[in-house]
Amino acid sequence: MVHVQPGRPDDTFSLKERLNSRKVGGTLLLVAALIAMILANTPLAPFYEGVKNFDLPIPFLGIDHMSVGHWASDGILAIFFFVVGIELKREFVTGQLRDPRKAALPIAAAVGGMAVPSLVYVAVVASSGVDALHGWAVPVATDIAFALGLLAVFGKGLPSGFRVFLLTLAVMDDLLGIVVIAIFYTSALQLWWLVASLAVIALYAFCLKRGWNQIWLLVPLGILAWYLMLRSGVHATIAGVLLGLVVPALPHRGQDISLAEDLEHDWNAISQGLALPVFAFFAAGVPFAAGDGSFLDALANPIFLGVFLGLFVGKPIGIFLTVVLLRKLPMFELDDNLDLKDVAALGGLAGIGFTVSLLIGELAFRGQGIDIEFAHLGVILGSLAAAFVAIFTLRWRGRAVRTVPLSDDEMLLP
């Protein structure tokens, strides 16, 4: 919890409070991404790539090769995932997802939103006769950071349940994406490192349960859990999610607020003001070109088309159809203040792939340089197309929802 101390400068307090605003964080993320795209597609590209690929190893810890870009996506982004984990825990315990039926629907939608894009990719590539079916998983991922950033900037007036649904879907999407990488694209999963990381996370949870929440204890444990997860071969940001999920969401006896609420407030400013913009700056800088042919030739490539259509078309359709088919079943329930138009708008946000999709593309087409470029171009243009559609639908739904009365426990996004 942030308190204004005597003599504390008001501008410092104001800065932290402003950075805690999701809209400010989303704006910083989008600006950083735009700058990165410009740099990557201008004569300044060599300078940008040089900074992004500059190696910052820590040999005595076994981290022999770790570029600045990887530190941004595997390291500093873990702070964002930690905050996401805390927020999700609060929703499961005290928020809109405390009803298992409401939690089950976005989880199922995440599965449908991964299955359909992969089928779209397989259909496109198989019909072309190109030997590239091993890239089926490239369009299955949602970039939670960019999706939530766009929602924060353009989702004014939507019910808060919209963000909760997207948050749950995107986290499950990320977790399943990591499972896909571990099973199909990782040959060197280090099980004992993973077990050690989970053990440290369990120790972290034990300390919190006992009320040992001193920063000198929790931060080193969190860094250790992240490091062990990194060494295991699993995407290290998963440690951030798991650490957030074990934070108690109910107040201890004699306290007014929970530790989850306290930590979320303290770390959210760092997540919004530092982690997200830095990540976006190094993740979004991808050239809008592939191979030695023309740009139009690249657009006709089956790998590009499979990835592009998987994200832009397959992702929204998969999520929408899953919700339509399951919402009437007794074990599933759509939030009272959401309808199918909201689900359709949400599907566009879920089509923003970026980070995990780019990672899967690199793993799937390792050693096939030109195919990697086609896959990356499909991810970037598919994500941009999905983002533009999402912006339009978010503004449209926001205006429509503001004219409709909501239930007593529902709020509008600012």
Features:
mainly alpha, Na+/H+ antiporter like fold, 414 residues, disordered N terminus, 2 domains
Task: Describe the overall structure.
There is one protein chain. This protein has 414 residues and is mostly helical. The chain folds into two domains: 21-46 and 72-189 and 233-399, Na+/H+ antiporter like fold, CATH 1.20.1530.10; 190-232. Helix content is 69%, strand content 0%. It contains 16 helices and no strands. Helix 5 crosses helix 7 and helix 5 packs antiparallel against helix 13 (302-326). The model is unreliable at 1-9 (pLDDT under 50). It is found in: Cell inner membrane; Cell membrane. It is a multi-pass membrane protein.
Give a short synopsis of this structure.
By secondary structure, the protein is mainly α. It contains 16 helices and no strands.
List the helices and strands and how they pair.
Elements: H1 10-19, H2 22-40, H3 45-52, H4 68-93, H5 100-128, H6 144-154, H7 160-185, H8 191-209, H9 215-232, H10 237-245, H11 259-283, H12 295-299, H13 302-326, H14 340-350, H15 355-364, H16 369-401
Helix pairs in contact: 1-11, 2-6, 2-11, 4-7, 4-10, 4-11, 5-7, 5-13, 6-7, 6-16, 7-14, 7-15, 8-9, 9-10, 13-14, 13-16, 14-16, 15-16
Q: How many H/I helical runs?
A: 16
| Structural class by sheet pairing and helices | mainly alpha
Q: How far is the first residue's CA from the last residue's CA? A: 21 Å
In the CATH classification, which architecture of the largest domain applies? Up-down Bundle
- Principal-axes geometry comes out as globular
Please write the CATH class name of the largest domain. Answer: Mainly Alpha
The CATH topology of the largest domain is given as Na+/H+ antiporter like fold
The biggest sheet amounts to: none
Q: Structurally, how many domains make up the residues?
A: 2
Strand elements, count: 0
The pLDDT mean sits at 85
Order of helices and strands: HHHHHHHHHHHHHHHH
Strand content: under 5%
GO cellular component, one term: plasma membrane
Protein name: Na(+)/H(+) antiporter NhaA
Function: Na(+)/H(+) antiporter that extrudes sodium in exchange for external protons.
Pfam family, one: Na_H_antiport_1
